[in-house]
Amino acid sequence: MAFAEKETEELLDRLKREYPDAGCALEHRNVYELLIAVVLSAQTTDKSVNKITPVLFEKYPSAACLAEADREEVMDIIRTIGMYKTKSGNIIALAKCLTEEYDGKVPDDYDKLIKLPGVGRKTANVVLSVGFGHERIAVDTHVFRVTNRIGLVHEKDVLKTELALMEALPESRWTESHHSFIFHGRNCCSARNPRCEKCVIEDMCMKAGLE
Fold it and tell me: Is 122 a residue of the active site?
């Protein structure tokens, strides 16, 4: 059973009221820093990334600087996050591509973004949304879990969930809903012990999909 258009709007309205400040939790000052931070955040909490990026960006404030970085030095800075060895190589290679192909600037183009080292569909969507203001839906573990659990979509993988959400949600609210679902997943609709008694959309939840 799908949500009716008015029900979807009501669901989004409730989440927006519950999380009025929902937005990108990764600290950044420009699109370059955003891109690097999102790449580093894969399978790691935003909080842990925010602890190491100030040092990283102070030492490497631009793509040109990071492109010339010593990998061992980068690894030392980001050692506390998951997959730091792989990520150190990816962000240096990414910076080289930005420097050589885009004059050090992050491209405002999905197809170009996903060709960069360490950049997948989710990362590209976050950068386009937060960095460039496009309406995009980036499906992380929270968005995937929450939207399937409540019955907004009924999909078994991330890509199908993203495509289904693009159909189910008004395009003007894609970015907003992305952040709302993340905040709801972190603060209420957790994976193992969802706090249903405190959920603002509990009466609308179909408890479907992944359950």
Answer: yes
The C-alpha atoms of residue 75 and residue 55 are separated, in whole angstroms, by 12
199 is in an annotated binding site: yes
Catalytic residue among 76, 122, 156, 203: 122
Using one digit for the tens of pLDDT, what is the confidence trace for 7-42? 999 999 999 999 999 999 999 999 999 999 999 999
- Active-site option among 46, 105, 112, 140: 140
Q: 97 a known binding residue?
A: no
pTM above 0.85, yes or no: yes
- What whole-number distance in Å separates Cα of residue 165 and Cα of residue 153? 7
- Which string of DSSP letters, residue by residue, matches 60-111? --SHHHHHT--HHHHHHHHTTSTTHHHHHHHHHHHHHHHHHHHTTPPPS-HH
| Maximal CA-CA distance, the chain | 54
